[in-house]
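Input chain follows. Return structure tokens only.
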Amino acid sequence: MSKLTAEQIAQHAYDAGFRGENLTTAVAVAMAESGGNTKSHNDTPPDDSYGLWQINMLGDMGPARRKEFGLDSNKDLFDPAENAKAAYEIAGDGKDFGPWSTYTNGAYKKHLDEAEKAARKAGQGSGGGSGGGQGGGTGGGQGGGFSANPEALRKYAERAESIADALEGIGKRTVNSVTGIAKDSFGKVGAETGFSDALGNFSKGLEKQVRTTGSNARKLGEGATDAAKTYQEIDERSAAELKRIMG
């Protein structure tokens, strides 16, 4: 199916890293840009824009963005997951929608109500949402409740961030070392047979996989940080309310 619902768009945006009001805005912008059509393509200059968020790949932007986003082809942006990741990066980690004309001219606003409803449901299909499952969580109480340890979540977030940084470094070192091997070890023969290029392309593909894994680790860490903050606020509000009741 090439046309997605607002809820499906919201889930892709959520998976890419958009959160809170920015998630709502991202969904509204996508609906204004493409109407939810994952195969939408505007090739009228100054545009060569693809997919849900109409990622512009015109001219020199094409090669630069393919490299930045780890894409083999502009058509990879017809994949809503890849398009959402690119949109998240272009939006400065999901916070700045200035690059989209439908945001600056206000066209996205007519989709905000629908986008907000969809954004509330995002993440629930992958274990998010309110309420724990029966017996869920550590130290769960009777009746299917659960308890949360904000400090443990914060430590998890720090660990995930360090893993992401390590993977990013590994990816860069791998592509540089393998590309160097191809040039230094095979010389003219490697260049003429195409083996050097093939080995270089393999290393870049490997770097993309490592970078994606690192990005996912970083998003897990961000999610843990958000959860820790939420649970901490709930604990503080509960304590304040109990103190008020107890006089």
